[in-house]
Design a protein that fits this description.
The chain is α/β, with parallel strands linked by helices. The chain has two domains: 182 residues, Rossmann fold, CATH 3.40.50.720; 120 residues, N-(1-d-carboxylethyl)-l-norvaline Dehydrogenase, domain 2 (Orthogonal Bundle). It contains eleven helices and twelve strands. It has a five-stranded parallel beta sheet with strand order 5-2-1-6-7, with helices on both faces. A four-stranded mixed beta sheet has the order 4-3-10-9. Helix 5 links the parallel strand 11 and strand 12. Helix 6 crosses helix 8 and helix 10 packs across helix 11. The radius of gyration is 19 Å and the shape is globular.
């Protein structure tokens, strides 16, 4: 099986490092000094596990260079692992790489990406996917595996089941990525979305780690933002759990990631574009279509956008 990893930054490189221990053929798409290091010297992984992977283990496509025709339609699976702000660029790469009968999924935060994949490839080629593995890059060619989690995969519009994607699930399992099949991909994506809209913008604006949101007044604010989003999900027909269970999940995630600095805070500090358009602003967009007000998500979106 040939796997293309498009947008091989922190989490993409971690996945590549894990899959390098399997028999799959790897094709990585990355940019800048990190891509150069992957090409010449390979990758160093530490944290949860420690390993060094030779550059001979994969082929690297540099974002700064045209994609060669030799890799066109060569990948059985394409994993889009970049940020939502890079989705447009990475989608064009995925179109070039994916086989006619291949499967594609994205790990980008937010909603709306899978619908665009369906439009580009057709519903039968698209899976929903999220991950709770944590990773960051202290320097080019080096990934710190900050926390072991799982990769959740499920159907989106096409009625895939775990048997139909068994080779992919086995590959991820062999790589130690702990894949979990979810029966309802839309619920899975919304559950991740609700956590992101409740945590990322507030922690990002405060400049604090996730655990700070456990303070009662901040936790109440996070819950209010999340439940505003849950109202939109239910209006779209998504069968979420009861509010009390959503609140318990939020509290549990904040406890487990209490020392983490969310990706939005890291983007703000680095002066990078945030993923607010695919998170809280997407809630506002969907609410407008449904005729439902989303004032809390609108406020957070406006403030984050004004930080640019």
């Amino acid at each position: 099986m040939r796997v293309g990893i498009v947008g091989a930054g922190s989490i993409g490189s971690l996945i590549a490092g894990c899959l390098s221990q399997t028999s799959c053929d790897l094709l990585l798409h990355s940019r800048g000094p990190h891509a150069a290091h992957l090409t010449v010297a390979g990758l160093n992984v530490d944290g949860v596990d420690k390993r060094t992977i030779s550059s001979d283990r994969w082929e690297v496509l540099l974002e700064e260079q045209p994609i060669p025709d030799s890799v066109r339609s060569s990948c059985d699976v394409v994993l889009m692992t970049g940020k939502s702000s890079a989705f447009d660029r990475h989608l064009e790469v995925a179109k070039h790489l994916l086989r006619q009968d291949g499967l594609v999924c994205t790990l980008a935060n937010g909603l709306g990406h899978e619908e665009r994949l369906v439009h580009a490839f057709g519903p039968q080629r698209v899976l929903a996917s999220t991950t709770t593995h944590g990773a960051y890059r202290p320097e080019p060619g080096h990934v710190h595996w900050a926390g072991s989690g799982e990769m959740s995969i499920g159907p989106f519009m096409h009625p895939h089941d775990n048997e139909s994607v068994a080779p992919l699930l086995k590959l991820l399992s062999d790589g130690g990525l702990n894949p979990q099949w979810q029966q309802n991909g839309r619920v899975m994506l919304w559950n991740k979305m609700l956590l992101n809209i409740a945590i990322n913008p507030i922690a990002g604006l405060l400049g604090k780690e996730n655990g700070s949101l456990l303070e009662p007044h901040l936790f109440e604010s996070s819950v209010s933002v999340m439940l505003e989003g849950a109202r939109i999900a239910r209006a779209e027909g998504v069968p979420l759990q009861e509010d009390a269970e959503l609140v318990d999940r939020l509290r549990d995630v904040l406890v487990k990631t209490s020392n983490n600095y969310c990706s939005m805070l890291q983007d703000i500090r680095a002066g990078r574009e945030t993923e607010i358009n695919s998170l809280n602003l997407e809630i506002c967009r969907r609410g407008e279509i449904l005729g439902l007000a989303t004032p809390l998500n609108q406020l957070l979106s406006s403030v984050i956008q004004d930080l640019r």
